[in-house]
């Protein structure tokens, strides 16, 4: 990573993190309802039976209600569990599952862990992001878990990143290992930005 790209990524993440911290409780609740509606429409359109999603932190666009409702409707949802080696394990979401604090303070499910390849058979991946640009390039939070996961998948289903509306930007700094996403889900819209990865 060149210093210039690393510095640009750090600066952009810091600005986006600050903006998220300044959101009001009402704005967060409105965003969560919007994300749920957009994700419900996306899984209906794509006839999703099995997917991955993530448990949102307090500053991320809310996904938890969507996950709970999707599981209650019979959709198999895999949730990521961080590992020290930079890969992700997966656990099947349940309607009454316990949540603990994983690496980096991220909310993660408690339960039987499935290995990194468990996600290979899902119909849709829904992942977090700091920002996504018009070409589908995703800026993550710098830990590389999802870039490694996407880069290692032999047959990758559609991948949608969840961000706030203001985080769909013209361009994000990128490096060779950074992975594009198929599209982006915001509280008000779902955009398809790049072809499904193979």
TrEMBL record:
Annotated positions binding ATP: 9-13
Residues annotated to bind substrate: 55, 60
Names of required cofactors: Mg(2+)
Top-level enzyme category: ligase
Catalyses which reaction(s): (6S)-5-formyl-5,6,7,8-tetrahydrofolate + ATP = (6R)-5,10-methenyltetrahydrofolate + ADP + phosphate
Coiled-coil residue windows: none
EC number: 6.3.3.2
A single GO molecular function term of this UniProt record: 5-formyltetrahydrofolate cyclo-ligase activity
Keywords: ATP-binding, Ligase, Magnesium, Metal-binding, Nucleotide-binding
One example of a Gene Ontology biological process annotation: tetrahydrofolate interconversion
PANTHER family: 5-FORMYLTETRAHYDROFOLATE CYCLO-LIGASE, ATPASE INHIBITOR/5-FORMYLTETRAHYDROFOLATE CYCLO-LIGASE
Similarity annotation: Belongs to the 5-formyltetrahydrofolate cyclo-ligase family.
NCBIfam families listed in its UniProt record: MTHFS_bact (TIGR02727)
Record protein name field: 5-formyltetrahydrofolate cyclo-ligase
């Amino acid at each position: 990573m060149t210093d210039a790209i690393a510095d640009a990524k750090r600066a952009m993440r810091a600005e986006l993190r600050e903006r998220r911290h300044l959101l009001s409780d009402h704005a967060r609740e409105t965003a969560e309802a919007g994300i749920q509606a957009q994700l419900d429409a996306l899984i209906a359109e794509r006839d999703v039976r099995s997917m991955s999603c993530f448990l949102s932190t307090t500053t991320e666009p809310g996904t938890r209600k969507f996950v709970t409702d999707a599981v209650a409707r019979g959709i198999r949802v895999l949730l990521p569990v961080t590992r020290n080696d930079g890969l992700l394990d997966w656990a099947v979401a349940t309607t009454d599952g316990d949540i603990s604090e994983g690496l980096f303070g991220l909310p993660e499910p408690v339960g039987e862990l499935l290995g990194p390849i468990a996600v290979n058979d899902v119909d849709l991946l829904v992942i977090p992001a700091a920002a996504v640009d018009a070409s589908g390039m995703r800026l993550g939070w710098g830990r590389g878990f999802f870039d490694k996961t996407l880069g290692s998948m032999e047959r990758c289903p559609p991948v949608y990143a969840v961000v706030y509306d203001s985080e769909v930007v013209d361009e994000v700094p990128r490096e060779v290992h950074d992975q594009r996403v198929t599209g982006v889900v915001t509280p008000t819209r779902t955009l398809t930005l790049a072809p499904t990865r193979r």
